[in-house]
Records
---
Amino acid sequence: MSGEFKDRMKFLVNKLGSIKKLSSAANVSEGVIKNYLSGQTDPTRKKLIALASAGNLNIIWFLTGKGSSEKDFESMDLIKDILVIAEEYLEESG
């Protein structure tokens, strides 16, 4: 499955069993998840990480639809580190 991000969100909801379960696991409101499912909005970096982590998904697949949906723990840790560094840099540079 590649398709659109909203399709991968549907996959994630189905994997966890419901929007409510995903909301609880990722600490993201049900309304926000519904917006992602409809394609109305896109998640922030932090929410992408939380959602992918909640479903034990490969974040590259979750973002792009490429590769396997199974979580690659080394890639996830690397991406988290990169995002933290980028966020710190952006905060420092204004």
---
Amino acid sequence: EQKFKDLAEQLPQTIFELDLEGRFTYANRYGLEFHGYTLEEAGNGINAMDLFIPEQKQKAIDNIAKILRGETYDDHEYSVRKKDGSTYPALIYSNAIMQGGRPIGIRGIVVDITERKKIEQMKTDFVSFISHQLRTPTAGLMGYIDNMLDGITGELNDRQAEYLTEMRDVCQRNNRLIADLLNVSRLERGVLVANINPVALREVVDTAVKEHRKAIEQKGLALNIKEVGKGIVVLADTDKLVEVLKNVIHNASKFTTIGSIDIEISSRGSEGIVRIKDTGVGMADEVAKDLFKKEKVFGAAIAVGGGAGLGLYIAKGFMKLQGGDIMVESKRGKGSTFIISLPLK
């Protein structure tokens, strides 16, 4: 017991125990000093709720209740408040203290992630800066190439036209990548906002399909759009919803060589639903469960089929901004179905 107590006192992280009322029954020396409290104040019963900002107290109470019931919870990040009123970002990991088969308190550790947040912000700012710097020359190249293809600089032979068309395609792919990088940067910084309005779901789907219809037909794929119930209206940001749909339809086309892409518009309870189903290569369960996670986007080299794999991470962020969601159901070799949901008007 003394050995582990000595170790806890030496750790440069806050280690704590609480009773069922939320009062501290133990905190290591580092934790007390870091938060500005004395051992005497701790002995008088500091309540853990005093260390949470008002906006997060209910989340903390709900998570404590889950821990005491033996349930798991995903959101460990909080803004923790010191005695002087200053706050810092932290991850809190904890579990129930059991005695005789019953919980008698909470034991855990608080990890200060201030430096990690600063590094993440620096990376995000760097991506934003580089993306802006790349966008201008790429747009200029596109303009010159379009002028040449339009014949402004003189008549082109077939090979020149072929090369210029390929160059334009490369520029368009780079433009899309730059736009994705900027969207990731904005999502990470929390500066994106959603302009929510009533939106006719069929009209948005038709707008998104328009850009990819020709490519789908050129691959010999069937494109079927079905609306179950007419005039379904959701609350959404039109531009962001179109981007989400375009991304999913683009992926469906890219990873499908035979068969069809089926889009179904419907409603369920208080939600409007768009299902985009393809007959493509599909994916394994372990890939599907991490498809929208930031860690997988930035941890992987290149996405299957080319690209940086940013689109679906952005799509998830866009849907959350609109109060909706995007999910996937898929089996390797049997295609994928993306389900997009938004609140009905």
